[in-house]
TrEMBL record:
Protein name: SGNH hydrolase-type esterase domain-containing protein
InterPro entries: SGNH_hydro, SGNH_hydro_sf
Organism: Paraburkholderia hospita
Highest taxon of source: Bacteria
Start and end residues of each SGNH hydrolase-type esterase domain: 88-283
Membrane-spanning segments: none
Amino acid sequence: MLLVFCGVLTGAGLIYVRLAGADLSRRPAAAVANGQTVPPDRIRLAVLGDSDSQSYHDPRMFRDPNARGGPWRTTTWQWTEVLARLRGDQIDQGQWGAWGTNKYRAYFDEAFGALARAPAKEDYRYNFAISGAWSNQLMGHPMRQAIRLVALMDTEPQAWKGGVVLIRIGINDVGSHEVLDEMARDPNGPLPTARINAAIGEIGQAVALIRKHHPDTYVLLIGILSNADWSGEFDNWQSAKAIANIDAGLNRFDDGLRKLAAPDRHVAFLGDRAWFASLWGTRDDHGRPLYKTVHLAPGWSITNTSGDDPHNAATSDGHAGVVWNTLWAQHLVTSLNAAFGLHLKPITDAEVVGFLKPSFKANQRSASERSTSAAEN
């Protein structure tokens, strides 16, 4: 019994040692040093992040029928899903399927050298983004997104040469009402400063890990959005000073990402707020909502409002709607080409309209059915 007890303690100790650190020094196994290559006209794309990047059509994590488009969920697509449909012949996000386990199973898999990821979700294999994730989940338990992605990449290192890891995270760190409210009063306040510094530190560690193991893989860092532009916050911070302070605070976050990217030609920064403003605009000089309307086709007027039909920029649960995600996918392809000299075929405006037609048709049918039902009653 003593021998058994000691064996259990030893095993537990080994598990603890293997889970305790970020494992920045781990090297790829020799057996996978000459991994499978992919066709030169198709690049791999991996994603680390939060709900801004997790696919919407995951029946495991999004069981609420009102989530991600509600009654129009079948035609409400997230940007990775748009890319898969419009540029799947050039961009490889991995097979769609059920990936991951609960965190305890992931701990044991990882401790004994097996590939691990948590939580369980249905998504593209290289998409590690999880709704609700903070930046500390890039390297820390229970998700360890960057560490577990790199472990997966290490099994096929040649395939990731010229590939891209996109990191889009931080809105849960610095985008809450509490943080923005303090930022509106003082962009250098203790809470915003602590959150920004911590997030940039975590992202920096993730970049270092990826670059150490895969020096020929590109990393794209996505800037932070402002939740002051979300309709749920329109009644708050209605002064020029407050909005200027929020922008100044968020600029510190983006400047941190720029600093990470500056010394390395394989790392680039892509701002998000400027792109949003180019489409929907900003608040006015008094901090009041004065947003524009995006017109894509006759009858397609998309406003910076929240709702599940495609005429709203955001869904009812506060995430990017199908138009936003489709236009962002278009923007991303152009930006990847510019940042890394890739040769992806740009997504044309005609492709955007063609892709969105089913979404607007579904909404139109639903509106017509409601109108007919009301007339009959």
